[in-house]
Structure formats: structure tokens, C-alpha cells
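Input sequence (452 aa), recorded before submission:
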Amino acid sequence: MAQQLFRTLRPRQVIAATAGIAALALAAAVLTAGPALARPTWWALVAALAALAVVSELAGVEYRRHGSRIMLDHIPILAAMVVVGPAGTGLVALSGPLVFGLYRARPARRTIFNVAQISLSAVLAAGVYVFLGGAVGSGAELRPAPTFVAYLAATVTFFAVNTVAYASIITATGEDEWWLSWKKVRDELNIAVDLGVAVLTFLVVHLYLDWGALALPLLGLPLVAAHVFTTVQTHLHEVLWDLVGMLVTLLEKQDPYTSGHSVRVARRCREIAEVLDLGASEVEVVEYAALLHDIGKLEMIFQGVLTKDGPLSEEQRELIEQHPIRGEELLSEVRALDDEVLGGVRHHHERWDGAGYPDGLAGEEIPLPARIISVVDAIDAMRSERSYQAPLPPSVVAEELEENAGEQFDPEVVTRALQLGLPSREAGNVDREDGASPRSAAQRRRAAGSGS
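Predicted structure, C-alpha cell format:
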């Protein structure tokens, strides 16, 4: 239902609807704020938290691999729910993306949407907090347990509305189905870290209820902690991807056939993993394994075989069948890679019926990443031009997949590949479709947050 609805809407309509609803929600919050609006101290608190939100937005962590920024402005927004209530929270929330959009000269429509969705998320979350009995303002009667429950419910509301808004605009662009768009945006959240920072923020504003404005400077603690952790985590993640990219580049330099092959296979394996509704970490395992599935061919013993024109002899075939094992052995030295990645590399030539290599695994004994790679690898091979074979037409590739489903290939993976139209993809279009490097294979993903 949501998919059909948003397919009929254009992005401008979604932006206008989001902005209209956000304006109504903020107006309602302001009208119910009552005497608070007449107090200079209330406006001073709003201004202080808004300034912190702007700093949080401008200090967002660049995520080069995703082409996005990880924003931290949810910290002052969550604090504002307790300090200044729904009206002030809405004003604090819109300040960050508004200033950021103007400072970076971003397109007006993008800035309007970011301002609208974040302020709507904030006002609704603050409304939930008040509705459930959360204490607001210095000197308010504090009941720790109910207040904390209300705070957690408001935090969940904030992130839920945020992800739904982004999924809606992505779907309206025709990029993905709504549920898949929502899943991608949700998976960009580091839920454990966000909840940890939210609890730390609550402890600080809990002190505010007792101490007053003297406690507000302590909001810098969760903000700095979140920034440092996110920066380190992002850097380590990108270093690992750089290492993977370097290995794939080395492989492509010595094997002409693999030029672009690993990136294409990785991108298309990722698509299948996403429509199989795997979690973010599982999708990334599939992508890592797909990028590295042929890395064992780096060993010198395979060079004569890789450059040979025409079909292989029996002896050469036995030799090349060792590359999954050599790949696993090589990657086992990279401790940052999960065992599931190594399993995907080792077993990507296993067959559903157990007649594959190197271990003769069958059915669901074969790791899912390997089963996905097996199908996509075969598609790319059939669609590629070889010295002894012209690219096969999409219809022939589709027939081969259907005929071998349940024998060579996992039937479910074949079904998903056909639904995505992978047999129709050209083998040589990696620059247009996927980006020119392994690092850019996930550029389409978006991070949830006001400035993504």
C-alpha cells in the first residue's frame, strides 16, 4: 500500500506534505506552550540548545564510503524535550539543518525537507514524552522511572519518524520499494551507540532538573563521546574498505578478465542480499565476500592458467579449483574480516546438489554469502566476452539459471536475481552502474539524519 502511494507521488509533493505537517505540528506545540513563551530564560535555553544543535550538525562525521555525513544533532534535540518541551524542541531541531543547508548552499528542496522532517520528528517525540508524564523544566517534579520510560519512548518515536520520512522521499524518487528504502535508512543507524548516547544525555538532563542551567554544559560530554567514537569507528571501517579495494585492484591488474568483475559481482550480490531482507551487517558480509571471492588468484601459481586462451585442461582445472582455498588462507591474516566473509570466499564454487568444490557442501550447508556469489558470478561469466565465448543473451542466461536452480544454484537466490533483472545487466557497465571502484559500490545508501 505504501509503495503504491509513494509511487504516485513526486518528490516535490512528499516534501510539501512533510513541510506542511511539520508546520502544523510546530504551530500546535507553540500554541500549547503557554506562559513559557513569555519568559526570557526559556528563550535563552532554546538559543543555547539551538547553538549546540548547529555545532553538532556542522561537526558531523564524513562517511566517505557512503557519500554521506553522520549527524549528532539528536543529542541536543533529545535534551530539549526535557529542558524546554515540545515547542522549544521543534525550534532547536530545525536550527541545525537550516544553518547547515545555508552554510553549504544546498538545494532549497533538500534543505526544506531536512528541516521539515527533523522538526516533525522532534515535536512528535517531545509530545510523546509529555503525554507519558515526562518531567519538563528545571524544578519540575521528578519521578525517575516514569520519566525515563517516557524518554525512551520519545527517543524511539524520534528515530522512527526520522527513518519513515527518509524512506518516503527515497521511494518517491522511484529508487526502491518503500519497505526496502526504510530498511536501508534504518540500517544506517548505529542503534546500540545511539541508545547509549541517548541514555547518557538523559543522565545529564536529569541533573538539569535538579541543578538547573548549571548542568547544561555537561551536554558536551555525550556529544564529544559520540563524535570521538563515530570518528574512530568510521575511520577504521574505511581503512578496511581501502585494504579490500587495494587487494581487488592488485587482482584486476594481473587478470584481465576480473577487471570490473569483482565490483559488479559485489554490487549485484548486495542487491540480492538487500531484497532477501538481511540485516546491515549481513549485507556487508556479502559485499566483502563478493569483492574478495577471487582474491586467491593473486598467487603466482595461477598466472599461466588465468592468461590462457581457450578451455582449461583437466590438470589446469584442478589447479584453478584451489583458488577458493588460497583466498581463504590469504584473508585469514586480515583479522578485521569476519569468519562469514572467509566462508563466502571459500565456498562460492559449491553447488546446491553437493557436487561443487572445495568441500562438497550441499543446500543450506553452504553459507548464504557463497550461495549468492555463486549465482551472480555465473551471471557475470555468461554475460562477459571471453576469448572462446561471446556474451550470452539475457534470455539464455535466465534459462540457464532456471534450469540449474535446485541443482547448481540456491532456488531462492535465483528467484531474486531474476526479479532484479540481473541477466539483463551488461558485464561492462560497472562505471555507469556501480561506480569505478570497490569503495563506491555502496554510494546509493543514505544515512538517517537531518543532513544526509
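Checked by second reader. Residues 405 and 412 are 8 Å apart (CA to CA).
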